[in-house]
Amino acid sequence: MSDLAQRHRVPRAVVQSALGFHPEPAPLRSHQRRPRLLDPVHDLIDRMLRQEYADDGVRLSNRKILQRLADEAGFEAASLSTLRNYVCKRRPQIQAELTTDLQRADDHDPGR
Question: Whole-prediction pTM value?
Answer without folding.
Answer: 0.62
